[in-house]
Each structure stands twice: as structure tokens, then as C-alpha cells.
Amino acid sequence: MGLKELRNAEHLSASSINDYIDCGLLYKFGRIDKIPAEFKPDALEFGSAIHLALADFHMEKMRGSYLSVKQLHECFETHWRKLTDGRDDIKYAEGNDPEILLLKGQELLTAYYNKAPWKEYECIGIEEPFSFYVKGCPLPIIGAIDLIEKDDSGTIIISDFKTSARSYSNDEVTRNFQLVLYQMAMKEKGYSNSDILLRFDCLIKTKQPKFESYYTIRDEIDEIRARKKIVTVSKGIARGIFLPNDSAYNFKCKGCSFKKNCDAWFLEEVA
Ligand code: SF4
């Protein structure tokens, strides 16, 4: 089953669990009440177009041929135009417009093409969907892994593509929840006896676009902690507990696409 079909049924995912933890109210508006977002941030569509172009690139490699950097640019342009042409619900950050972002995307992909280790390993999966259960959580955990590779010794390398405004810190890599979930998914898929390496492939939108790979691993304790988190989140959702987090530390408030609903919610009479 593809990710689209998996999404049709009730589920949890790395992003929904992160949303719930960052702000329960944000989770409720988007995923329980299914309120249409006020806007789509340009970064979201930009990231989608990069993902789709890289999926094309690796798919071609898996078929046995390499796309040139020019062809990679063309893939990006096709996806970008398809995602953005005629849309008036995309909110462009100051200084951005579709043409500027088209060029930025192509520059980032050049950096990826020149620096990413895409020639080093055998590609065994692209946009690989998964669904698995954790004991104590009635909902399946679903997602899709951007890229799965294997090296000569049989080690599995799971990669997630990121577009980011800056380099990642060590903490952001070693404590990331999404990667442990991907490791658990791969084990469910029959790779429980394999060595697994995890990697962020980061396309960094600095003035001079650059690419960085960050490798990391997760152990049994990380998986136990992730399971506990999943079960606790699922209990909170089942009990209808959706705490707002409008603290200064919640970076999601700034670009929140449910701001009006949030303001209205805070002004509602307490029942
Ligand atoms: S504005 Fe902040 S507190 Fe309100 S829903 Fe969005 S993330 Fe949550």
C-alpha cells in the first residue's frame, strides 16, 4: 500500500507525533477537526518539489542510468511548477517568489549532485512506505523513507532529505525522533538483524547553497523511549487532551497556519 492509501485511515506519523508534542492545539485543528490551513508556507512546497526531484534522480539510478545535473534541474522545475502554478494559498516569505525559489532549488540540487554520496551505495528503496504497530498504541505508525541504500558489507543506510535554512546541530541529529521511527520501521520490514546507519541529507538554503550529510545511529534504549512516547501520545489523543503551547519557545507559532482559530480558541468561554 502506498503512503496516500495509508494516510486514508487513522494513524500516527513522525510529524503528527511531533505536532502533538509541540502543540496539542495545532494537532487538533489540523488532524482531528481537519480545519483547512489558512495558507501553505512556501518552504513546505519547496521541500516537496526537492523530494520529488531527488526521488526521480534515485529512481533513474536504480534503473541503471544516471541523470545529469541539468536533467535533475529539469525534474525540479517540472515538480515545482506543478506544485505552485496557479496557487494563491502559498505564503511566500519576504524576498521569495516562485522564480527565485526555482533558481534556489536548482542551486541546492547542484550542491547535492556534487557533494552527496549518491554514487557510493546501492539504492534499494525510494519513498518506501511503511506501517507498523507498537504495543499499547491502537493506531498504526506510518510514513515513507526517502532513500534506502546498502553498502558492500550489507549495512543498511536510511536517509531523510531535508531542506533547511542552516546546518543541523549535533543534538538535532542525535536526538531526532523521526530517524528512530525509521529504524523501527526497517526492522519491521525484515531488517532486524542488519546493521543500520541513519542519515540526514541536508540541502542548506544559505546564501551560497550547500549540502551536508549527517550520519547517526540509534540503539535499543532509543527505541524503548520512542515506543513510550508513541503510546503516551496516543493515550493523550484518545482522551481528547490537546494542550496549547503558545510559549515563546514554540517555534511553530510564528508560521502557524491556524493562527485565527488559535486566537478564537483562547477567547472562548471556558465551559
Ligand atoms: S499559534 Fe501556536 S499555540 Fe496556537 S495553534 Fe499554532 S502552534 Fe499552537
Q: Can you describe what's shown?
A:
There is one protein chain. This protein is an alpha/beta fold and 271 residues long. The protein has 2 domains: 1-33 and 120-242 and 253-258, Lambda Exonuclease, Chain A (Alpha-Beta Complex); 37-115, no CATH class. It is built from 10 helices and 7 strands. The chain has helices at 3-8, 14-22, 24-32, 42-62, 69-84, 98-115, 170-174, 177-191, 220-238, 259-267; strands at 40-41, 90-91, 122-132, 141-150, 156-164, 196-204, 210-216. The strands form 2 sheets. Strands 3-4-5-6-7 form a 5-stranded mixed beta sheet, with helices on both faces. Strands 1-2 form a two-stranded parallel ribbon. Strand 4 and strand 5 (156-164) form a beta hairpin. The N and C termini lie far apart (43 Å). Bound molecules: iron/sulfur cluster. Iron/sulfur cluster (SF4) is lined by residues 23, 25-26, 244-246, 250, 252-253, 256, 258-259, 262.
What does the secondary structure layout of this molecule look like, with pairings?
Blueprint: H1 3-8, H2 14-22, H3 24-32, E1 40-41, H4 42-62, H5 69-84, E2 90-91, H6 98-115, E3 122-132, E4 141-150, E5 156-164, H7 170-174, H8 177-191, E6 196-204, E7 210-216, H9 220-238, H10 259-267
Parallel strand pairs: 1-2, 5-6
Antiparallel strand pairs: 3-4, 4-5, 6-7
Bound molecules: iron/sulfur cluster.
Iron/sulfur cluster is lined by residues 23, 25-26, 244-246, 250, 252-253, 256, 258-259, 262.
